[in-house]
Design goal:
Layout lengths: L10 H4 L6 H8 L8 H15 L8 E6 L5 H11 L19 E5 L6 H12 L9 H14 L4 E5 L9 H18 L2 E6 L4 H4 L3 H6 E6 L6 H13 L11 H11 L3 H18 L6 H6 L21
Parallel strand pairs: 1-4, 1-5, 2-3, 3-4
Helix pairs in contact: 2-12, 3-4, 5-6, 11-12
Pfam family, one: TniB
Organism: Acinetobacter tandoii DSM 14970 = CIP 107469
Protein name: AAA+ ATPase domain-containing protein
């Protein structure tokens, strides 16, 4: 398979074209990074914050957007770019390991002790969850100092809204103290409801900038996004996704939600391979116009789960 034959595809996708149809279909469901404009802007903002010198009042950021808009994908890409080694990757060189960026999940509900446990889990060190909160804090702070952690990213931070106002205040005060004690940049990632956290105390609002990840609009940026998929989906023919009719249909079905768009195009690409069309057509897109994952449960019987 030559680059000349599939010149519409990105270079790293060309090797996939030599696989069987079933293997090509399997690759559709792999994670993929698409560096669209807003995502790159947020990545650049995170990099800029990370590269600044430590200061007494570190910059903090809240990244918010609707569910299934690709927030976690962005922070995963950022963490990967600044990955050195996880603490258990090596034995003899532990003293030289640095963890400049630490990404954890927020506790299932506002709970300071669970926050420390989630931090300690990332370092793969022995600890007792039943230990007093103060001991867990000392251990977490020690490890972040030892491995020179400069940025703590907390995904699903809106979970902290589940619980009393008192517990939420305790978690936010803990993050503020960690930020002060370690010159630590705190980055929260969550749904739009997470902004409510900043309104519970004026000090939080003054510390956090907010980066919004809005739904897509049917504009040139959306068309560029569709063209990115043309290059990344391993189909033998070039799909005319950015045409007016097809782009409008795709937008109407996905509702501007990035996750719904991704799922729609993956299912359409799979169907194109199964049918032998090797391109996403208007007819294929119409077959999946009911597919709106973010709106609720999907009837899996409507999906073609057969693999060639």
């Amino acid at each position: 398979m030559t680059m000349q034959k599939y010149e519409h595809l990105a270079e790293d996708v060309l090797e996939v074209m030599s696989l069987s149809d079933s293997d090509r279909i399997n690759t559709l469901f792999s994670d993929r990074w698409i560096g669209y404009k807003k995502a790159v802007t947020i990545l650049d903002t995170l990099t800029d914050i990370l590269n600044r010198p430590r200061k007494l009042r570190p910059e903090c950021l809240l990244i918010v957007g609707d569910s299934n808009m690709g927030k976690t994908t962005i922070i995963h890409e950022f963490t990967k770019q600044h990955y050195t080694k996880t603490v258990n990757d090596i034995d003899m060189e532990l003293l030289s390991v640095k963890k400049p960026v630490l990404t954890i999940l927020a506790p299932a509900k506002a709970n300071v002790k669970e926050l420390y446990i989630n931090i300690l889990d990332h370092f793969f060190v022995p600890f007792r969850p039943t230990d007093p909160e103060a001991k867990l804090r000392n251990q977490a702070v020690h490890l972040m100092r030892k491995y020179e952690t400069k940025m703590l990213i907390i995904d699903e931070i809106h979970n902290c809204l589940t619980g009393s106002t008192k517990l939420l205040s305790e978690v936010m005060n803990t993050l503020k103290n960690l930020s002060n004690d370690l010159s630590l940049n705190i980055v929260g990632v969550g749904t739009r409801e997470a902004v409510t956290i900043l309104h519970t105390d004026a000090q939080y609002a003054s510390r956090f900038d907010v980066a919004m990840l809005p739904k897509w609009e049917l504009n040139q940026d959306f068309l560029r996004l569709l063209l990115s998929y043309v290059r990344l989906l391993p189909l033998k023919k070039r799909s005319d996704l950015a045409s007016q009719r097809l782009a409008t249909l795709i937008f109407e079905i996905s509702g501007g939600n990035f996750g719904d768009l991704n799922r729609l195009l993956i299912e359409c690409a799979k169907e194109a391979i199964v049918q032998g069309d090797e391109e996403i057509t208007e007819e294929i897109v119409h077959k999946f116009k009911w597919l709106k994952p973010t709106e609720g449960m999907r009837n899996i019987r409507n999906l073609n789960l057969n693999v060639v």
